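**User:** My hope is that you can spare some time for a protein that puzzles me. As I understand it, each token names a local backbone shape. I would be glad if you read both lines and explained how they fit together. The protein I mean follows directly.
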Amino acid sequence: MKLLLIEDEPAVVSVITRGLTEAGYEVTVAPDGATGLQLALDNRTFSLIILDVMLPALNGIEVCKAIRREEIATPILMLTALGTTENIVMGLDSGADDYLVKPFKLAELEARIRSLLRRKSNTTPVINSALLQIGNLTLDTDTKAATRAGNNIQLTATEYRLLEFLLKNPRRVLSRMELLEQVWGIDFNMNTKVVDVYINYLRKKINKNNQPELIQTVTGLGYMMKENNEDTA
């Protein structure tokens, strides 16, 4: 299993490389963002990319965005010393699949890697191209296009996954932790405020032009996708 580690701190590189090599992974190291990006573009056989945010030459956010612009779907685990909700959202918005705050234990890093690799192996193509729909909101799972009342809605990759999961589970209360696990594939207790941030992003986009609310807040429990006039009792 080949992994690409893009990290400039020698001590961190040493710990991660030694630990992951002992766990059976083959680790290629890039000491700066530009080198890491070039390796990711030139060699698309990596199973996973571990990407630091604060890098010389090109920061991790820009590296991640560039990788995704090339439609490379390799899972990206972002590492950073910045653990605020805003920084986590920025990393996920750039195309990262998971986010681990420094300092961390090697055992947690290995568990996150296993989780992302399981998620990748369990991904199956959509068999039917039927639209997901509630009210006048539709999502085409083939073209990834969302519309409401005939108006196109531009979504980021994370917003798309969140909306898709909500639409696949209509009229069901979904907890923040379940949304984290199912949409981000995170098996650990990342700050659930990330979910609230993305719910707000979605609401602003799908409620544009004074459209009625579809993502209902269930106080103390989570969120539910339904129309206001629907009875869920």
Notes: Residues 124-129 have pLDDT under 50 and may be disordered. Helices lie at 10-22, 33-42, 60-69, 85-93, 106-121, 157-168, 176-184, 193-206. The two ends are 49 Å apart (CA to CA). The first strand starts at residue 2 and ends at 6.
